[in-house]
Amino acid sequence: MLSRNQVKYINSLKLKKQREKYRQFIAEGSKIVLDLLDSGHHVCEIYATGDWIDQYSSSFQLKNIHPVQVTEDELSRVTALTTPSPVLSIVSIPETDAGPVSGRGKLILALDDIRDPGNLGTIIRIADWFGISSVVCSESTVDLYNPKVVQATMGSIARVPVHSVNLENFLSGLPPSLNIYGSFLEGENIYVMELHKEGIIIIGNESTGISDGVARFVTHRVHIPSFSTGRGSAGQAESLNASVATAVLCSEFKRRIL
Questions:
Q1: Which of 17, 46, 50, 201 is most buried, most CB within 10 Å of its CB?
Q2: Three-state secondary structure string covering the chain
Q3: pLDDT tens-digit readout, 17-46
Q4: Pick the CATH number of 4-92 from 3.30.1330.30, 1.20.1440.20, 2.60.40.150, 3.40.630.30
């Protein structure tokens, strides 16, 4: 059973300032919770229905976690989802340090002011799928632990290191020889240009793209060409969604450097 104070505390974690204060976030859904349990993240509390507890008892018993059995009605009072899942967990926010992120020998995604939670979560999921070693976010990018971001990762938040940094300072500290690719509406065709197995791939804001301050570090401007016929009075699509563009870029990089 959930107490009034527990309900109040869980709901408070939907706000960034409360997450920062208590260094905890909420995660919902069987896959996400189970992935977090299998990772290095510290799962502090689990609130779940009796059926869920019975089905997945082996996943949390070894972690010395004792779930609180609750009803679906109680979960509906704390969920951040349209329809509550049978399990909600409270997880500690890990201490992260962007220092070890060098870009040497690997591909890293850098996100410049991504504001949509669904985009950020999906990009982290994409990074997981394509084996991208790290994601570096500008300080103005939406909070990683926003419940909508966590949900959109579909568990990939448990596997992909994500760092929040001053992006210009981070880029200025990289070796001058490192390839830094930026996604632009105008640039070299991704399908014909030379690609390398190590470097930084920068994705810009959904509306304004890569900022001028970040763009000055880009060594290769990358463009995903449109194959639209442009038929009809409305013409062709203006651009790709940020997460879709990320998937196309990661796929082409990985295809070419295998």
A1: 46
A2: CCCHHHHHHHHHCCCHHHHHHHCEEEEECHHHHHHHHHCCCCEEEEEECHHHHHHCHHHHHCCCCCCEECCHHHHHCCCCCCCCCCEEEEEECCCCCCCCCCCCCCEEEEECCCCCHHHHHHHHHHHHHCCCCEEEEECCCCCCCCHHHHHHHCCHHHCCCEEEECHHHHHHCCCCCCCEEEEEEEEEECCCCCCCCCEEEEECECCCECCHHHHCCCCEEEECCCCCCCCCCCCCCCCCCHHHHHHHHHHHHHHHHC
A3: 999 999 999 999 999 999 999 998 999 999
A4: 3.30.1330.30
> Mean pLDDT across the chain, nearest whole number?
91
